[in-house]
Amino acid sequence: RGVVDVRATVEGIQSGRLAARDVFRNAEGLLPSKPAAYYREFVHPTPGVSGAGPQRIVAGQGGQLYYTPDHYRTFIPLN
Q1: Is 11 a residue of the active site?
Q2: Is residue 9 exposed (0-12), middle (13-18) or buried (19+ Cβ within 10 Å)?
Q3: Which of 21, 54, 57, 62 has the most crowded Cβ, counting Cβ within 10 A?
């Protein structure tokens, strides 16, 4: 709820400082269909939650970025 500032996570992804957690397989089919291993997932810290929490940024090899606040139930395009 409210405003979520993903700038630091996006900057970490784009600069290569932040390592991907895993390949995002898009099994739900909510993102555009692409070849296997096209998307990578990155954790966006969730205040008050220990561990990874539900927030992620998914990055495509073509530079696409998507934010999911709810562990892949919904996606918000960032570019």
Answers
A1: no
A2: buried
A3: 57
Report d(CA 24, CA 40) in Å as an integer: 5
Active site residue 41: yes
Residue 61: half-sphere exposure toward Cβ, Cα within 13 Å: 10
Catalytic residue, from 11, 28, 41, 44: name it.
41
- Give residue 2's pLDDT: 77
Look-up: residue for tokens 């096209």?
38
Angle of CA points 49, 54, 58, to nearest 5°: 135
Average pLDDT, the chain: 95
Q: pLDDT by residue (tens digit) across 38-73?
A: 999 999 999 889 889 999 999 999 999 999 999 999
pTM attached to this predicted model: 0.93
